[in-house]
Write a structure and sequence with these properties.
The complex is a heterodimer of chains A (about 260) and B (about 300). Chain A is an all-alpha fold. Helix content of chain A is about 75%, strand content about 0%. The chains are: A mainly alpha (about 260), B alpha/beta (about 300). At the A-B interface, α1, α5 and α11 of A face α2 and α3 of B.
Amino acid sequence: MAALSHVLEHRAVQYRRTFRSSVFSSFLSPVLFLTAMGLGLGGYVDRSGGAALGGLTYLQFLAPGLLAATVMQAAAFEATFPIIGGLNWQRTFHAMYATPLSPRDIALGNLLWMAIRLGMIATVFTVVIVAFGAAHSPLVVLGIPVAVLTGMAFGAPIAAYSATQRTPNKFNVIFRFGITPLFLFSGTFFPIESLPGFLQPVAWLSPLWHGVDLTRGLVLGTLGQNPVAMLAHVIVLTTIVAVSTWAAVRTIERRLVRG
Amino acid sequence: MSENPSTSLIHARGLTKRFGDFTAVDAIDFDVAPAEAFGFLGPNGAGKTSTMRMIGSVSPISDGTLTVLGLDPRTNGPQIRARLGVVPQQDTLDTELTVRENLVLYGRYFGLSREECGRRADELLDFAQLTERQNDEVEPLSGGMKRRLTIARALINEPELLLLDEPTTGLDPQARHLLWDRLYRLKQRGVTLVLTTHYMDEAEQLCDRLVVMDKAKIVAEGSPRQLIERYSTKEVTELRFPPDVQDSLDGKLDGLAERIERLADRVLLYADDGEAVAVAAHERGLKPETVLVRRSTLEDVFLRLTGRSLIE
């Protein structure tokens, strides 16, 4: 545990340099999105009646989904460049490996830092949701850990993959064909029931959809309407995080041992 | 040479490293005694870095035995690494931190308190002549400064053994001399140094004892002086001819020296009295463009042992 705390200390000192601008942009992004889409676009959507959204305003529908989706995007970024940089560019992971730290400490410490960063982003986002009046339940607070869990369901497997790469060339593929489509089609901006029937099962495969549905249940306090589905979401996300964390430990270790 | 594993800081027998079908280190034997400066001299690809990584307990051995500080790297990696300082071939400094932060945060990985890290960082900044740059970022530092910072960082845990992989490769002569001076001081303090290099002058400057590596094997072992005495003559006469003359020298040099090496651009004549060789060559009517009489170096040893130059 001491080893992990030293990795966290290291990453925190690094982060201190960009803290202000990072927090500022963490605020700016949800404010812009919720204003433009939640209030602006939402104004039009709401005029056609809220039946399709189960009586919610579009802002209320959008905000929790966007929370999960934003944290997913941040996770994808944190799991690509910092990992490949630590292993190939600055090679700071190799420097850590020359100390008593094990590859496992290095992998877990960095994943833990990723989770902390996602927690910060989710917290700021949640504050903005409350400020916009889009939260309907005190359970909104639980949206933060759920968003982090959703983010890690992307961050851990992408980190496992990044550790196998020596250049960032393939990261574009992840963002363009993975993150962006999921961002758009996982029930963030419209219910997946609006997708063509054959695409709906595909959406169920998206970890983001599980995260969006769960976050929405917490922010809006509708969790109790379908507790089994909510529990299933938690199990799916936790399983993905557990398996891919193990995978990330393995790939980072292999890369460090190879030199 | 200490043959007893209990007194050697590093003890290797039949040490082997394979990557798939490729054998990077092929059954080498060596011992490093406390307070010694020990070198691996050899060209790129000889297996020096693979050997260093096994000693550094970050790369598992494929075969043979290896003990470092009396411990087995396979089972005691973290305990060994806690007592080593490592200066890798490529800098691994954190460019998102300041010079000082690089030292302090690294010390934390060895379980040192913040106060202790700060105290040692002050000392090491002074030692590395970086005190004035302590709050600067790493990136704008010169190559020599980065190397000195890497060495300072490797000393934060007061290691018993300092591993340096190609410590001055890529540095300009002035920066190299400054670095050698710092390493010499460490040696004076009793720190055991193990270094790899493909610079024979570096090996001569720093190493009490060295092994010459070529193609994954150790081909010779001894002090720089012993190696030169054993494998070369006292002096070398270097003759440089115009390219067309160089090609037509067959037979004309025979008997001038104990041993003759014809390189692409010059001829090396090995004899204990280099001046006499130069005179004799002149008397045969040979008209080299330049004549240089010098003492034998480890470069000559390497040429003798492998038929090739260290830097190709």
